[in-house]
Amino acid sequence: MTDRLNALVDWFRHSSPFIHAHRGRTFVVSVGGEALSDGTAAALVHDLALLNGLGIRLVLVPGARPQVEERLNARGAAIRYVNGLRVTDAEALGCVVDAVGSVRLAIEALFSMGLANSPMAGLRLQVASGNFVTARPLGVRDGVDYRQTGEVRRIDTAAIRQRLDDGALVLLSPLGVSPTGEQFNLYAEDVAVAAARGLQADKLLFLHEGEGLVTAAGTPLGELTVEEARDRFESAAGDAEPLRAQVTRAITACRGGVARVHLLPRQRDGAILGELFTRDGVGTLITPRAFERLRPASVEDVSGILALIAPLEDDGTLVRRTRERLETEIGDFTVMEREGTVVACAALHRIEDTAAAEIACLVVHPDYRDGHRGRQLLERLERDAAAAGLESLFVLTTRTAHWFREQGFVPADVASLPAERQAFYNLARGSKVLVKAPG
């Protein structure tokens, strides 16, 4: 019992920065109808209700593909596909309307449950649905009339924001109505992308079926820029990736102003919580190419680093480094580049024959010190240290001890340093020693 409590307390403490960061943000969540057909919907709804309770503004876009297919099979009908697009005739549309309605009611029922001793106990969460989506027909393409299959024409973002402001969770269905009153069958994922773009959502989360993206070595692929995702999928064979369609939609969303798109395995229990409230997440994050990027330093960066650290060397904050020394140590440095200029740097110096490393020369340009860049650099070095199997990080500082303590470092004695580093400790500077385990 004590171990479980300690684990819970530890998780809450580590997740609190993410809780603060996500409060008041708008997230769009897309999930297939499979969630309602395999018994996992209740857990998903509990997680979404928790997000709402933490102040996150949620738009949920559920699909209904299994439910539609079930009704089509019962009638002996089918949705025909031509050139990868479905053709929705009148009979199929009736099945779609029936299935989408049943999914909506099932979700509303799940959000209405409040049994004692359950995660929903005491919760009164309003679910708002309505005519938020205006559609238009795909029409006739290459001689094929796609009938009642449509695409999103407009999302009523003002109405959605009003419901979100009222504290409701907004539910969007993969059905749209045209200004003439016709109903159209839509792809739920396309509705989610259109909503995220229209709302300029902070995040779009796709809960997909099957396994996630992996590297060539078979390890989970944690992050891709839009350019990396485009290059990967444009150069691959047509059936090389089961998530090709989702990645394509993620690229579209990012180019439309959505800051982050997450691809998460739906079958993994608690995937949304794991993605949002842990540092490494559980899925693949796709982001636009930022103006800034972290990368290993090269010899070409020496001049930029020297210019960056010179003021701190002049006032005694840093020990002075010669160009020759910096060129020798450049492989230990990571830099943050903004439009071709080095705006921050830090070094990870491994101590030979030990499992320890020193974090040194962490500097952010004065014009960029209000954007958490120092923390981003430190987190990058910590990940590098963990990947290298290091067990201890330490830092020597005269003026920034409190900042490092805020990042999880704890004070230590000089005697705790590796012997090699103790030998070069400068008593005259009187630097504070702080240590931390990476990861």
TrEMBL record:
Entry-linked Pfam families: AA_kinase, Acetyltransf_7
Subcellular location: Cytoplasm
Residue span(s) of domain N-acetyltransferase: 292-431
EC number: 2.3.1.1
GO terms, biological process: L-arginine biosynthetic process
Family to which this protein belongs: Belongs to the acetyltransferase family. ArgA subfamily.
Name the UniProt record assigns to this protein: Amino-acid acetyltransferase
